[in-house]
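Continuing the series of single-chain predictions for the mutant panel. This is the parent chain; the variants come on the following pages.
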Amino acid sequence: MKNALTRAAEELAASDGPEQITVRAVAKSVGVTPTAAYRHFADRDELLDAVKQRAMVELATSIGGRLATIDPDDSSQAAALARLRASGEGYINFAIAEPGLFRTAFSRGGQITEPPSDPHTGYEPYQMLVSIVEGLVRAGLVAESDRAIVESTAWSTVHGLSLLLIDGPLRLLPEPAKHQLISETVDFVCSRYVSPS
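Parent structure:
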């Protein structure tokens, strides 16, 4: 029952965003009484946390799908940069493909501030970025002292563009222009903050 309720809440989030997630609405969707749903979730915050965790797993899966195209044993500078590029593209493309889940993943409310790691990959999206930046450091592309700023800058750049593309004025761009903007933004992250030594 708990899984069915969580799936129903995830479907509501995907179609209508996090604001639509209520225990009552999810119970109705599954065909049970709100009282039955409250046996599994104490309140809306607990239900929202479960959906936020699933949304983060979906986001991590999108990034992981892009990363899977790069040989994990390749420690070259080119591969390290390709991983940074792939993670940015996977992040932004997930936001565009699943705006409701993306909004939910980073929505206010709930009780958790950082969703737990995906039990299948051992990573959540930010942890994946940390690992990628560690690869850039090992490849000699980023100084150890710059690691934190590269992580923060890369994340805030792709997250900001994601929000502008789904909720801001950039949502009105034609598709080819969106794809070009994504590519150029990821290029900017790779070239501006990662300088080959």
